[in-house]
Design brief:
alpha+beta, Beta-Lactamase, 7 helices
């Protein structure tokens, strides 16, 4: 049994070192996979908000413009950015970790004004017209966060409200004032859609998956150890114990020890055959001595 204990200790040590190496690599892969997963979700949300913007421009605006002209009021629901932001508010009931903002350098609604780190993203889009998406990490008040962004470009339709205050709808100017949200130019990058979420979200996903991997590895280890111990017991430990018992009895003068069964052609079988020959030789020698 001591042989089994030694084997189990060696197997546990080797397996533990292997698990430590595999675990470190696996955890890193799970982190990268979880990060890609949540960024993919963020991109999907972004596309959904872009669809809301298009739906607002193409279908809602033509319906609500006559109402605005007749009532001389401004309906923010006709603004694509407002519609997207409000829609995401409802979406957050299912995904509270995510946040959405149409960060704009010179917005009409001041809630959309880009803060410093958002302005850096907008300027990155402005400096590189070929840049279609942008993602990365930043430190927020609640800890590290991930963000995914894509540019907002002013179209010809946007200039009906955002070129100069004198051509903008009077009701809009009355609501938001004439100091912000004007001077836009067609095809100019004026902001960015930004989806943000805490870095803890993908890390928690990675930790949960890593915990499951460790559980599976533990089960595999225990099952493997049990199978290997059984195999070692019947192929090595038990035959070795028989050899040890035979040697002890012979050393105490018991020559009536039966020969060991020899099975197979491995080293244990060779050793058993050698012990049997030694026993026969010893018995023959003792008889020769007794005959004299």
């Amino acid at each position: 049994m001591r042989l089994l204990v030694k084997f189990s200790a060696i197997f546990t040590l080797v397996f533990g070192i292997g698990v430590a190496i595999i675990g470190a690599l696996t955890y890193r892969m799970l982190q990268d996979g979880a990060r890609a997963q949540v960024l993919g979700q963020a991109q999907l949300m972004m596309q959904a908000m872009s669809s809301v913007r298009k739906y607002t421009s193409v279908q809602l605006l033509p319906l609500l413009e006559p109402v605005e002209e007749r009532t001389k009021t401004f309906l923010p629901q006709t603004v694509p950015g407002y519609a997207a932001t409000e829609n995401f508010t409802y979406l957050r009931t299912q995904f509270p970790e995510y946040s959405y903002k149409e960060a704009t350098l010179n917005p009409t609604n001041l809630r959309d004004r880009a803060v410093e780190w958002e302005a850096d993203i907008v300027n990155a889009f402005r400096n590189d017209p070929n840049l279609k998406t942008y993602n990365g990490e930043r430190m927020s008040a609640t800890g590290p966060a991930l963000y995914f962004a894509q540019p907002l470009k002013a179209t010809a339709a946007c200039l009906h409200c955002h070129s100069t205050p004198d051509v903008a709808p009077p009701a809009m100017v009355a609501r938001y004032g004439s100091a912000n949200g004007f001077g836009w130019k067609e095809n100019e990058i004026i902001g960015a859609q930004v989806v943000t979420l805490p870095l803890s979200v993908p890390l928690e996903i990675a930790r949960n998956e890593f915990r499951a991997v460790l559980i599976y590895l533990g089960i595999i280890f225990l099952a493997s150890l049990a199978v290997l111990n059984l195999a070692l017991y019947f192929t090595i430990a038990k035959p070795a114990a028989r050899l040890s018992d035979m040697a002890n009895r012979i050393s105490l003068g018991d020559l009536e020890v039966p020969e060991l069964p020899v099975k197979g052609g491995d080293e244990i079988a060779d050793l058993a055959e050698a012990f049997n020959r030694m026993r026969r030789s010893l018995v023959t020698a003792m008889k020769m001595i007794g005959d004299q």
